[in-house]
Design a protein that fits this description.
The complex is a heterotrimer. By secondary structure, chain A is of the alpha/beta class. Chain A is about 15% helix and about 20% strand. In chain A, strands 1-2-5-4-3 form a five-stranded mixed beta sheet. Chain A has a two-stranded parallel ribbon with strand order 6-7. A two-stranded antiparallel ribbon of chain A has the order 8-9. In chain A, a hairpin with a 2-residue loop joins strand 8 and strand 9. Chain A is elongated, with a radius of gyration of 19 Å. Chain B is of the alpha+beta class. The chains are: A alpha/beta, B alpha+beta, C mainly alpha.
Chain lengths: ~200, ~400, ~475
């Protein structure tokens, strides 16, 4: 019943796993000093299950699951991955933890944690919809906000605004988005990654 | 936009009913694809996206302070709380680097609590009133809305707006309180308390209403946590968690927030975590908010000459910090009327956010719809939606 | 066919000495239906006005619906002159008039009603593509028919009744059953799932609630020994100045119980909140009339108000002395016939207006039941209650015949069917009254206490919310 600091949580996590099956977790710190834990994509379900079920950790709540495109982020070294971020919270112990999974840009597939936290069902659908990351094992991985036949993932940093959707022009004559293709190509622009 | 349809083919006696996107009980453009067996719901799949306005995408295109008006549109029923959530997050980001530290003046903090709690009152009034209306009690709804007008009048004097306020700014609030705002607020609260007693006598303790809500859509505490329920929905299931008390932001730590939780208020027929508990928790929170407003008015320092005075000012200087905020990421969460409103903000050190993400209570609560609605009556679907206090712009953003 | 001399004369005038079938039909409509409509339609409008005014006052609405309320308030307050001083009256009027919506219009906002009527007539008549055409079109007429026909048997005064049927009580419930058909047709014919659900709910509910209604009416028939509504009203005559003592609800606690059951079942019959399963606007959009617009919808609305008034009329006729005055009925019957008729019609109107106001008041106060709760209330509460009351009523009627010789009954009771022992046998009468009134009332009181205890104590948080300690 006591809140653990980030280092204690990581230590406990390392202790719970047998040495042979210990996932390659790494502690990291963001540019403004926020600690987070990098988890390999393939181990996320295992780690999540332990984090939820271990009585000392007790992360029963997934507060948020989101992500962002690292393409234009001034990191050193630069990355083209999509970062998937899990914000966990324990209502019993009152401590929290940030996990990150890096999904490769083009073939990004991350195992779904919706079997661990049911709420991830919705969060993952949103990330899939807006960032184009696939979640393996998700019960209903479909777009949640954009129309089903939408092309592209709007929150990716290389997303190009389509000039039209199903023949309906988005731009008025003379109007122009910064990176919009020139008017006239009725066909939706080719996207690097389609969800 | 794709509903989660577990039953793709309708066999036997099933009928598929589209509740929404335009339906009186879905509180906006939410669509529920309900498969019914007679009057009994066999499967209920929510379908979202009819109100998607790409607010998170807009966040990546506008400068830090310019995003505040958009937060109003994230949840227009409690726009003050939505403003506050974003501003608290940006301030937390700025404070993560000593070079860009920002100190919100004490007076501004008090004003923030006053307006946020008043807006919580008005939001909860919409919630309880609309739930009463969903159950056929039209008069209590209008009484609640009439009281909400009182809150809107106060806000209109404060910032000129009645719905989307754009009042709380990064580092303070937009305008100082007008001269007799405290007296006006107290006058409103005094009549409001009397009015709420009448409201509760009219609907809350009504036997028909209790029987409609008691024992319907019972959500255990474990389920509530696992499905990401927050705010009154979580507390209705008996989980004692309120960010204002447990992770205080602003001056909430000094106010001693008391948190009501579900206790099977409906008596013998009631269960902890049923619709009635969620309803009553909101009503108790209204009373607590009234107390918090009064407490914040007591704490209010006298106004100072300079707007950026750390005690009596209302707006810290943040223009310089916002041109070059620290690089990095932050997550801050506040307690909005519909529960945790958490902002994830990523900054690349420029005057435009790199990523703005808002996690809202109404979005996650939709993930439990299918689970709780199996086997209940069609009439109870509206009870459950009402008890969850769905605000659709918050879901679709 | 014998449809009365007026119909015959009109039919002969229309198509000669051997009238054709259409002439007879037209004449019958002109003589019987049109006057009835002329009476009932304004009554339906009255229902609409009452609904709007009561709702506006309860909800403190600003707008045309609450216009003119202060006129009513002023009248009521001024009439109470003996009890309140003039200054007190002025203060009261001032306070009430300062409420929102109490503007100073003098016309009671009747213009709004007329404008609504014109608007309804002018609206586009939309028939959905998926609708079952003739079923959809016929339903509103049928609803109106079912709501208006029973009025034919209601006696408005001693000699004002459209249709003298010896089985008036049976006729009234029989023809009002037509409206079930209308609800079903509207629900099915609209080709809308919400409408269909509403229609199905309506049928289940109305058919179920006809049983308590029928049983309640059977109780009155048992007591009065006649199915003739005139006879039932006449049976409730009391020759003293306190004429209300003759009313059926004051005759026996069982009749009082049946009156309550009839009221609630009537509320359910005409689909009013808390029983508005068929409409349930927050669940089924608007239920059976979702797809109706313009005057077709207006006909459903009129049918609803007529049915409410019908419930009031039947309740008044069966239990509240019909067109008789609560006091000094013996004076009124001695008046000239035209004056007596006028007063009687006015009194009946006042009675069912009162019932209507109570129904509207309930509608804007209570939330709605769930569909299973409605059914449970009918079959597990009202029907057993009715059976119990009927059984008790029959027993009380049997007692005098058991304890007295037949000739004594005739002289003491004065009527063929057993009223309670009256004044001549004071002691017996008192014992009888004690038995039949005090004991059941005490039992009922105990039952209420037991039910409250069973329901459990209120949670302290709720007591606090409702202003308790």
């Amino acid at each position: 019943m006591s809140a653990l600091a980030f280092a204690d949580i990581v230590e406990r996590l390392r202790a719970v796993f047998p040495a042979a099956t210990l996932p390659a977790i790494e502690t990291k710190t963001s540019d403004n000093g926020q600690p987070w834990l990098l988890v390999p994509a393939n181990d996320i379900v295992r780690v999540a299950t332990v984090l939820r079920d271990d009585p000392v950790l007790g992360f029963a709540a997934l507060c948020d699951l989101t992500g962002w495109d690292l393409l234009k982020y001034p990191a050193n070294p630069p990355s083209t991955d999509i970062a998937i971020v899990y914000y966990l919270h324990s209502l019993i112990h009152r401590h929290h933890l940030t996990l990150k999974v890096l999904a490769p840009r083009d073939t990004g597939t991350v195992p779904s944690v919706s079997s661990v936290w049911p709420v991830a069902n919705y969060f993952e659908r949103e990330v899939f919809d807006l960032l184009g990351v696939h979640f393996a094992g998700h019960p209903n991985l479909k777009r949640i906000m954009m129309p089903d036949d939408w092309i592209g993932s709007p929150l990716r940093k290389d997303y190009i605004y389509p000039a039209s959707y199903n023949g309906i022009a988005h731009l008025r004559d003379g109007q122009k988005f910064e990176d919009a293709p020139t008017r006239g190509d009725a066909a939706a622009p080719a996207q690097a990654a389609k969800p | 936009m794709s509903p989660d349809l577990a039953i793709e083919t309708l066999g036997g006696e099933r009928m598929r009913l589209n509740m929404g996107p335009h339906h009186p009980a879905t509180h906006g453009v939410l669509r529920l694809v309900v498969d019914t067996d007679g009057e009994v719901v066999a499967n209920c799949a929510p379908d979202h996206g009819y109100l998607h306005r790409a607010i998170e995408k807009i966040g990546e295109c506008v400068e830090w302070p310019m995003f505040v008006p958009y937060t109003d549109r994230v949840d227009y029923v409690c726009a003050m709380n939505a403003n506050l959530a974003y501003c608290v997050a940006v301030e937390k980001l700025l404070n993560s680097d000593p070079a860009t530290k920002v100190i919100v003046p004490m007076r501004a903090e008090c004003i923030r609590v006053i307006v946020a709690e008043l807006n919580r009152i008005s939001s909860h009034l919409v919630a309880v009133g609309a739930m009463a209306m969903d159950l056929g009690g039209y008069t209590p709804f209008l009484h609640a809305i009439a009281q909400r007008e009182g809150v809107n009048d106060i806000f209109e004097k404060l910032c000129g707006q009645r719905l989307t306020y754009n009042y709380i700014t990064i580092g303070g609030v937009g305008f100082d309180l007008h001269a007799n705002a405290a007296a006006e607020t107290e006058a409103f609260l005094a009549q409001f308390e009397k009015e709420m007693i009448r409201f509760n006598q009219l609907i809350t303790t009504n036997t028909i209403f209790q029987n409609r809500c008691a024992g319907v859509a019972v959500i255990s505490a474990a389920d509530a946590v696992a499905y990401g329920l927050v705010g009154p929905n979580l507390r209705g299931s008996g989980v004692d968690w309120d960010i204002r008390r447990d992770e205080p932001y602003g001056i909430y730590g000094q106010l001693g927030v008391r948190v009501p939780v579900g206790q099977a208020y409906a008596g013998r027929a009631g269960r902890v975590g049923d619709c009635y508990d969620r309803f009553v928790v909101r009503l108790l929170e209204i009373n607590e908010s009234v107390r918090l407003v009064r407490a914040a008015v007591q704490l209010l320092p006298p106004p100072a000459e300079k707007a950026n005075d750390p005690l009596g000012g209302f707006q810290a200087d943040v223009a310089k910090q916002l041109r070059k905020p620290p690089k990095g990421e932050i997550r801050a969460r506040t307690e909005a009327p519909r529960g945790e409103m958490g902002y994830v903000i990523v900054s690349d050190g420029t005057k435009v956010p790199y990523r703005v993400r808002v996690r809202t209570g109404s979005f996650t609560v939709c993930s439990i719809f299918n689970t709780v609605m199996k086997g209940i009556f069609l009439a109870d679907v509206v009870t459950v939606i009402g008890s969850f206090d769905i605000v659709v712009p918050e879901i679709d953003r | 066919m014998n449809l009365g001399p007026a119909v015959d004369a009109l039919a002969i005038w229309l198509s000669g000495s051997d009238p054709a079938w259409w002439a007879i039909g037209l004449a019958a409509v002109a003589v019987w239906v049109l006057p009835l409509m002329a009476v009932v339609l304004p009554i339906a409008a009255l229902g609409q006005i009452i609904e709007r005014k009561v709702a506006a006052a309860m909800q403190r609405r600003v707008g045309p619906n609450s216009v003119g309320l202060d006129g009513v308030v002023r009248l009521v307050v001024r009439l109470s002159l003996p009890f309140i001083s003039r200054a007190g009256q002025d203060r009261l009027i001032g306070r009430i008039s300062s409420l929102p919506g109490m503007s100073l219009a003098r016309t009671l906002g009747l213009g709004q009603l007329a404008a609504d009527g014109v608007k309804m007539l002018g609206k586009e008549d939309i028939i959905p593509a998926g609708a079952d055409g003739w079923v959809f079109r016929l339903a509103p007429y049928l609803a109106l028919t079912g709501a208006f026909l029973p009025f034919a048997a209601i006696p408005f005064a001693q000699n004002v009744v459209a249709l003298e049927v010896p089985v008036g009580a049976l006729y009234a419930i029989a023809v009002s059953g037509i409206s079930v058909m209308a609800l079903l047709m509207a629900g099915w014919g609209s080709g809308n799932k919400f409408s269909m659900l509403g229609g199905m709910r309506a049928v289940a509910q109305v058919v179920s609630y006809e049983i308590p209604v029928g049983l309640a009416i059977a109780g009155v028939v048992l007591w009065c020994g006649t199915m003739d509504l005139h006879g039932i009203v006449a049976h409730q005559y009391n020759g003293s100045w306190a004429s209300f003592l003759g009313w059926n609800i004051f005759q026996s606690p069982f009749l009082l119980l049946l009156a309550c059951v009839l009221f609630f079942a009537g509320l359910a019959e005409c689909q009013r909140t808390p029983f508005d399963m068929a409409e349930a606007e927050s669940e089924l959009v608007s239920g059976f009339n979702t797809e109706y617009s313009g005057m077709r919808w207006g006909m459903f609305a009129m049918a609803e108000y007529s049915e409410m008034i019908l419930v009031g009329a039947i309740l008044s006729t069966l239990f509240l002395g019909g067109y008789q005055s609560p006091i000094f009925e013996n004076v009124i019957v001695a008046l000239p016939v035209w004056l007596e008729t006028l007063i009687h019609v006015g009194i009946l109107l006042a009675k069912f207006t009162t019932v209507l106001v109570i129904m509207v008041w309930i509608r804007w106060t209570l939330p709605r039941f769930r569909v299973d709760q409605v059914m449970r209330l009918c079959w597990l509460t009202l029907v057993p209650l009715c059976l119990f009351a009927l059984f008790g009523l029959a027993l009380t009627m049997l007692i005098p015949s058991l304890v007295m010789p037949a000739d004594a009954q005739a002289t003491i009771l004065g009527v063929a069917y057993g009223r309670l022992p009256a004044m001549p046998h004071l002691a017996l009468g008192l014992v009888g009254h004690a038995l039949v009134w005090i004991v059941p009332l005490a039992l009922g009181f105990l039952l209420v206490i037991a039910a409250r205890r069973k329901h459990g104590r209120q949670h302290p948080a709720l007591t606090q919310l409702t202003g308790g300690a």
